[in-house]
């Protein structure tokens, strides 16, 4: 601040007086200057205050404006638009066969529940519901509707007709919740592979669908994984082949009065299972409850092809022979002592009939000599035998993708003695399932490498498994197995042009109390076709078959499992696209004859 | 000059306000439409799933076998059997090339081929 200037500075007054001017003019000019300065100062202050005020108002209006714009722009329907739409569907992936035919899919349905407190006329609702659903009891319903509960499940699945009927009651206390249910359009076909599904955690608006058996349970995580919902699970099964085998096997089972039957058709190179049939079967849409008493094998949900762990009989004879050939202990023409009976400690090994003092190794297989096989096995020895069977996967649970596989472990002798080795060589004293047998036969005929059975279609040929036997041994075995059909126990398996080869096995069934039944057998056939370059392995197993067309009842596999196999082959080989080789049948002159 | 600027900016404000208002409602309509379409897609997918299930159900092998045997008189369908494979040489000679006979094609089907036609 500058010091206040005097209004009448003495020096200028005296000067003005000396010049004769009016000194008051100086004072007036000074007063004017001072007022102008004061005016400027107050104006500047007012202006800065106004500016501040403008800024405050601007900020306030801007805030309100932005807030209004935000409210106007952000409608709550935007997130809903993203959620709704295509993704509601399918909480479980479909299952299809190798050609894309649907085996399991989902269907939208509704569940029925009630809010009894919202009911207008509980008596009428109970009466009408009992009329629509005959299994509901009117009195019980009325009791529930008039009781204390505020919420009540009535039914898990409704058909569209039932839903409309319930709708027509017009009762506001009866409500519907959307549901997705699992549907198996082919009914009983491949029931044991698919297993079944049921509801898990349930809510009003949705319910979990979980697998309860078979591949539905084994691959539950894959089927429910959200990133793979739109990719169906492609099985290795072939629907038409499965249907044809099921039909033939069913007919065979009825004709031969068998209690049950099982069959497996497997790709000999890749281990893909093209068909897996177990009879009697069930409808997975309405899966029966597991039995609580009695023999589990009597229940239709029992998968004989996988859980049916039985002594398989002579089909096992190929393994000691394969091992003896592989180890160089014998060749197919080596003669083996086959005089029956053979004394083995306290045991006697007998043949079905006496085949003379000695047989070649090939004839041991062709005629199915127990004694001959026991002698071959004695040369191999129990330790090597056990290791070989283990390598083939016959001593462990099958790796196939079914939940039942892990629980169906083969039954083995407690001690692998010489006697056990002898009986195991011809298929007694050790129990395993047709599934393990099929995989082991695949290794015998495909050139000698191990295959891993699978129910999932392989997109690319899998890497070759570990070699079990040499290509040369495999060729010798193929030759022997073919001879079994040409002139041995499986002559009825011959279908011209398909070169099937295989081994029969008739095993006496074990009594639950110990010992063996006299007239109850498991008749088995395991083989492959075409034998010059095997592409498929087939196993057929019949439980207690009996063939009664002759004068006496015949139970051996040659009369039961083998003819069934031949019929399966006749039906299935064309479906697999295999054309018969060198069939000299009638030559149709016109293409119409072929079209039938 | 200054007042013209004020008027112009006032007009621009009016215009942008109008534009924003319209965009807001257009967006709301588009969202509702998208939601409706989403629901439509869901319904259609549900319908497709039902149709697929029904197709699989109607084509199940045992039903086809039943139908084939029920209509055997008319269709004469049998299971595929090994005897049905044929050699190419077993097929009859193909009909003469229609173009070889000129475009009126009178002689497309020769007399001996006639019974091949349905």
From TrEMBL, chain A:
<keyword id="KW-0131">Cell cycle</keyword>
<dbReference type="GO" id="GO:0051301">
    <property type="term" value="P:cell division"/>
</dbReference>
<protein>
    <submittedName>
        <fullName>Cell division protein FtsI (Penicillin-binding protein 3)</fullName>
    </submittedName>
</protein>
<keyword id="KW-1133">Transmembrane helix</keyword>
<keyword id="KW-0132">Cell division</keyword>
<feature type="transmembrane region" description="Helical">
    <location>
        <begin position="50"/>
        <end position="70"/>
    </location>
</feature>
<feature type="domain" description="Penicillin-binding protein transpeptidase">
    <location>
        <begin position="264"/>
        <end position="550"/>
    </location>
</feature>
<keyword id="KW-0121">Carboxypeptidase</keyword>
<dbReference type="GO" id="GO:0004180">
    <property type="term" value="F:carboxypeptidase activity"/>
</dbReference>
<dbReference type="GO" id="GO:0071555">
    <property type="term" value="P:cell wall organization"/>
</dbReference>
<dbReference type="InterPro" id="IPR036138">
    <property type="entry name" value="PBP_dimer_sf"/>
</dbReference>
<dbReference type="InterPro" id="IPR050515">
    <property type="entry name" value="Beta-lactam/transpept"/>
</dbReference>
<dbReference type="Pfam" id="PF03717">
    <property type="entry name" value="PBP_dimer"/>
</dbReference>
<dbReference type="Pfam" id="PF00905">
    <property type="entry name" value="Transpeptidase"/>
</dbReference>
<keyword id="KW-0812">Transmembrane</keyword>
<dbReference type="InterPro" id="IPR012338">
    <property type="entry name" value="Beta-lactam/transpept-like"/>
</dbReference>
<dbReference type="GO" id="GO:0008658">
    <property type="term" value="F:penicillin binding"/>
</dbReference>
<feature type="domain" description="Penicillin-binding protein dimerisation">
    <location>
        <begin position="88"/>
        <end position="225"/>
    </location>
</feature>
<dbReference type="GO" id="GO:0005886">
    <property type="term" value="C:plasma membrane"/>
</dbReference>
<dbReference type="InterPro" id="IPR001460">
    <property type="entry name" value="PCN-bd_Tpept"/>
</dbReference>
<dbReference type="InterPro" id="IPR005311">
    <property type="entry name" value="PBP_dimer"/>
</dbReference>
<keyword id="KW-0645">Protease</keyword>
Automatic annotation (TrEMBL), chain B:
<protein>
    <recommendedName>
        <fullName>Cell division protein FtsL</fullName>
    </recommendedName>
</protein>
């Amino acid at each position: 601040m500058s010091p206040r200037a005097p209004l009448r500075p003495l020096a200028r007054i005296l000067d003005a007086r000396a010049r004769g001017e009016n000194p008051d003019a100086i004072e007036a000019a000074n007063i004017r200057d001072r007022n102008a300065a004061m005016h400027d100062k107050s104006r500047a202050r007012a202006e800065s205050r106004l500016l501040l005020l403008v800024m405050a108002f601007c900020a306030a209006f801007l805030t309100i404006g932005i807030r209004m714009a935000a409210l106007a722009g952000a409608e709550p329907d935007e997130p809903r638009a993203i959620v709704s739409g295509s993704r509601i569907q399918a909480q479980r992936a479909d299952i299809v066969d190798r050609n894309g035919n649907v085996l399991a899919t989902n269907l939208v349905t509704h569940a029925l529940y009630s809010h009894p407190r919202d009911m207008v006329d509980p008596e009428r609702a109970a009466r009408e519901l009992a009329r629509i659903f005959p299994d509901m009891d009117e009195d019980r319903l009325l009791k529930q509707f008039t009781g204390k509960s505020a919420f009540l499940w009535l039914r898990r699945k409704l058909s569209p007709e039932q839903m409309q009927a319930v709708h027509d009651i017009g009762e506001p206390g009866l409500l519907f919740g959307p549901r997705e249910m699992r549907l198996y359009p082919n009914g009983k076909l491949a029931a044991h592979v698919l297993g079944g599904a049921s509801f898990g955690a349930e809510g009003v608006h949705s319910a979990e669908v979980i697998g309860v058996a078979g591949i539905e349970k084994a691959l539950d995580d894959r089927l429910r994984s959200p990133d793979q919902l739109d990719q169906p699970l492609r099985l290795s099964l072939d629907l038409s082949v499965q249907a044809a085998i099921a039909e033939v096997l069913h007919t065979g089972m009825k004709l031969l009065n068998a209690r049950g039957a099982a069959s497996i058709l497997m790709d000999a190179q890749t281990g893909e299972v093209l068909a897996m049939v177990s009879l009697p079967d069930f409808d997975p849409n309405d899966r029966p409850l597991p039995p609580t008493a009695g023999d589990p094998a009597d229940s239709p949900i029992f998968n004989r092809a996988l859980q049916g762990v039985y002594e398989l009989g002579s089909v096992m004879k190929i393994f000691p022979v394969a091992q003896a050939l592989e180890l160089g202990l014998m060749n197919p023409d080596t003669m083996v002592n086959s005089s029956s009976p053979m004394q083995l400690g306290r045991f006697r090994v007998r043949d079905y009939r006496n085949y003379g003092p000695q047989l070649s190794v090939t004839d041991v297989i062709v005629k199915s000599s127990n004694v001959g096989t026991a002698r071959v096995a004695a040369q191999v020895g129990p330790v090597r035998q056990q290791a070989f069977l283990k390598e083939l996967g016959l001593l462990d649970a099958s790796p196939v993708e079914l939940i039942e596989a892990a629980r169906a472990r083969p039954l083995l002798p407690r001690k692998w003695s010489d006697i056990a080795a002898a009986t195991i060589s011809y298929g007694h004293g050790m129990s395993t399932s047709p599934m393990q047998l099929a995989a082991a036969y695949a290794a015998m005929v495909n050139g000698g490498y191990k295959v891993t059975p699978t129910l999932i279609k392989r997109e690319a040929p899998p890497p070759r498994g570990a070699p079990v036997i040499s290509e040369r041994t495999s060729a010798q075995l193929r030759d022997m197995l073919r001879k079994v059909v040409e002139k041995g126990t499986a002559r009825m398996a011959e279908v011209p042009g398909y070169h099937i080869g295989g081994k029969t096995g008739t095993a006496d069934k074990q009594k639950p109390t110990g010992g063996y039944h006299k007239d109850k057998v498991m008749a088995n056939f395991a083989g492959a076709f075409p034998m010059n370059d095997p592409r498929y392995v087939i196993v057929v197993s019949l439980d207690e078959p009996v063939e009664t067309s002759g004068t006496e009842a015949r139970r051996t596999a040659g009369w039961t499992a083998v003819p069934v196999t031949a019929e399966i082959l006749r039906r299935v080989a064309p479906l697999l696209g295999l054309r018969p080789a060198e069939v000299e049948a009638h030559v149709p002159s016109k293409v119409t004859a072929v079209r039938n | 000059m200054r007042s013209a600027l004020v008027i112009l900016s006032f007009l621009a404000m009016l215009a942008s306000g109008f534009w924003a208002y319209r965009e807001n409602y257009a967006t709301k309509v588009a969202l509702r439409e998208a939601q409706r379409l989403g629901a439509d897609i869901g319904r259609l997918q549900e319908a497709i799933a039902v149709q697929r299930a029904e197709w699989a159900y109607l084509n199940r092998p045992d039903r086809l076998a039943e139908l084939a045997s029920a209509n055997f008189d008319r269709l004469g369908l049998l299971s595929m059997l090994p005897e049905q494979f044929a050699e190419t040489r077993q097929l009859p000679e193909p009909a003469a090339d229609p173009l070889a006979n000129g475009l009126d094609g009178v002689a497309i089907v020769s007399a001996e081929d006639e019974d091949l036609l349905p």
